[in-house]
Write a structure and sequence with these properties.
Layout (H helix, E strand, L loop, with lengths): L3 E11 L5 E12 L4 E5 L6 H9 L6 E6 L2 E2 L7 E4 L11 H11 L4 H14 L15 H13 L5 E5 L7 H18 L2 E6 L2 H7 L2 E6 L4 E7 L11 H17 L14
Parallel strand pairs: 3-8, 3-9, 6-7, 7-8
Antiparallel strand pairs: 1-2, 1-4, 4-5, 9-10
This protein binds adenosine-5'-triphosphate and magnesium ion (MG).
Length: 263
């Protein structure tokens, strides 16, 4: 039994013309505890849909999703999502944002404050605890979002292009922070990205998707210790392999060219 199991998952969405779009086609993979797995693939191949299903926000039409041998049917504190845009509450201060999930769990304010502050320290933002989201840069907001997710101590962190809107330099910095947090906390991470280099730098395993219908075309293990150097020969080879895989599957009509160079 694996920690997280995705078995024969299918998802359809109704189209305007009355037909059904097969967004996820017979998706099967397993994730072990403490693994960092990236999902990569062209726009529209169902990555966010799959993450939303794992979060329990939407349901698969068929198949099974198991976490620790228990079916995923609804959202829960064992899984937390971090989105591309940090989705912080603008009317709450940084620390109040981080405390929010703890408040819902009815943890007393003093304990919540202590936990939130500790988590803000871990993302190097303690001194901004009383600032408001509009006073932060994009990278800082994402760090608050990561702190807000981690403070709940979820078993699985679901990340949907969390660094997609950031400049390359900030992205590189956050890679380092995320890897450090991951090494320290050993969370299980499912990470969606368009950026091949980001995926190979961060992940233990990459699941490559194609679209129409959204399906898995390859699973690649990356057996290199962290932290990794982006110029490592193996990583460069892998990057080209994945790029070729995606380009050979790519339908450019209505799509976009794959990002070749990323942070
Ligand atoms: N609620 C919905 N109703 C109808 N169709 C949807 C819905 N959500 C997603 N879709 C469709 O499902 C497909 C997959 O969408 P999804 O957002 O999962 O793709 P993605 O792989 O995350 O793409 P991107 O890389 O652009 O974020 C798309 O064709 C999209 O139009
Ligand atoms: Mg998406």
């Amino acid at each position: 039994m694996a920690f997280l199991e995705i078995k024969n998952v299918n998802k359809y969405f109704p189209m305007e013309n009355g037909s059904q779009l097969n967004v996820l086609n017979n998706i099967n993979f397993k994730i072990e505890k403490h693994e960092f797995v990236s999902l990569i693939g062209p726009s529209g191949c169902g990555k966010s849909t799959l993450l939303n299903i794992l979060a329990g926000l939407i349901h698969a039409d068929s198949g099974e999703l198991l976490l620790n041998d228990k079916a995923i049917t609804k959202p829960g504190n064992d899984r937390v999502m971090v989105f591309q845009e940090s989705a912080l509450f603008p009317w709450l201060s940084v620390i109040e944002n981080v405390m929010f999930g703890l408040k819902i769990q009815q943890i007393d304010k003093k304990t919540a404050y202590t936990k939130a502050l500790k988590q803000l320290k871990a993302v190097h933002l303690a001194e901004f605890k009383d600032s408001y989201p509009h006073q932060l840069s994009g990278g800082m907001k994402q760090r608050v979002a990561i702190a807000r997710a981690l403070v709940i101590n979820p078993a699985v962190l679901l990340m949907d292009e969390p660094f997609g809107a950031l400049d390359d330099q900030t992205r590189l910095l956050l890679h380092k922070e995320l890897i450090n947090l991951w090494l320290k906390t050993k969370k299980t991470i499912v990470f969606v990205t368009h950026n091949i280099r980001e995926a190979i730098k961060l992940s233990d395993r990459i699941i490559v998707f194609a679209n129409n219908p959204g399906r898995i075309i390859e699973k690649i293990n990356i057996d290199l210790p962290q932290p990794r150097n982006k110029d490592n020969k193996k990583l460069v080879e892998l990057e080209n392999r994945i790029l070729n895989l995606l380009q050979s599957e790519m339908n450019f009509e209505g799509g976009y060219r794959y990002e070749e160079i990323g942070a």
